[in-house]
Every structure is written in structure tokens, then in C-alpha cells.
């Protein structure tokens, strides 16, 4: 239990600054060019659903705090993408929607059945997005511009979350969600080493 809580707090603490460099980079450039709005919204949906579901189930904050902080940062990124585009007027409307959603969760206005459904949908979304990346790596026999450190941190974080979910909640939906993510992150992480020699060989030629 002590290890689980310590891991949960460590993951939560680390998540506070996870997207700050990205936010500052967009702010300094006054542009979000090259960043997919759709992918950021999907990521926000995943983080927000996990935080909302866990809060509604009464789980300890160390179990879902990282999803909460990541959700806030992704909301800012989405707002920046909208603000620095032709759809700047929608940035504040999006903020208002997120604010209303937060109060709806706190006030228990959204049925738990809806939150369970949204949380369950995160499993196939994660599977598809990670599988596409793994297939692309296999197709080109390379991990391209993927960051080894970022992929490792994602892998380590999801593995740790499987442990804390089992220890702190025993919730099958969360365990399967993080278990699926950790399995696919493990495949992508392993591909760095599988294609390492191939990458060196291409550089030599």
C-alpha cells in the first residue's frame, strides 16, 4: 500500500509539468502549426474521462491526479491551437465547455453509466492509436523521430498505474485500460532496440 501510494504521488507530481514545455513553445511562437487538434482532443478525452470516472468512484487522488493535471494542460494546448488559428473565437467557448463539464462532475450531474461508457471507449482508442504507431515502425523498420525517453516514460507510467489500480482500486476497467496501454507501449519501446542496428546501417549508407 505504501509503495502504491508513493508511486501514485510520484506519477502525479511528474505530470504537473509534463506539457509545460509544449505550452511555452506554442506561446513563444504564437503558433501551433504541426500539432494535430484531433489527436490532442482525443488525448484530453482520455485523461478527462479517467479523472472524472475515478473521482466519481471515490478513488484516492494519488490514483488519478496525473490524469487531472494532464487534462488541464491538454485543455490549454487545445485552446492555444484554436486561439492561434482561424477559429480563435472557439478557444474561450471550449474553455467554458470544460469548466461546465468539471462542475457537472463535481455536482454528480453526469450519470456514472455515462462515465463508465466513456472510460471503456478509451481502451479501443488507445489500442488503435498505439497499434498504428507500432505498425508504422514495423513498416519502415525504424522508430523515426519518436523520442526514446518519452516512450519509456509512457511505458513506465502505465505499468506503474496497473500496479496502483490493482492495489488502490481493484477496478477492472482501469486495470484493463492501463494494462492495454502498457502492453502496446512495451511493443513500441522494444522496437527502438529491434530496429537500432537497422538505423545505424542506414546511416552508414
UniProtKB/TrEMBL annotation:
Keyword Repeat in record: yes
Statement: the UniProt record of this protein carries the keyword Oxidoreductase: no
Origin: domain of life: Eukaryota
One cellular-component annotation, GO: membrane
SMART domains: CTNS
Subcellular location: Membrane
Bilayer topology annotation: Multi-pass membrane protein
GO BP, sorted A to Z: oligosaccharide biosynthetic process
Chief site of localization: membrane
Keywords, in A-Z order: Membrane, Repeat, Transmembrane, Transmembrane helix, Transport
InterPro entries from the UniProt entry: MannP-dilichol_defect-1 (IPR016817), PQ-loop_rpt (IPR006603)
Pfam families in the cross-refs: PQ-loop
Transmembrane intervals: 6-24, 36-55, 67-84, 91-110, 146-166, 172-196
Family: Belongs to the MPDU1 (TC 2.A.43.3) family.
Alphabetized PANTHER family for the sequence: MANNOSE-P-DOLICHOL UTILIZATION DEFECT 1 LEC35 -RELATED (PTHR12226), MANNOSE-P-DOLICHOL UTILIZATION DEFECT 1 PROTEIN (PTHR12226:SF2)
UniProt name for this protein: Mannose-P-dolichol utilization defect 1 protein homolog
Originating species: Heterorhabditis bacteriophora (Entomopathogenic nematode worm)
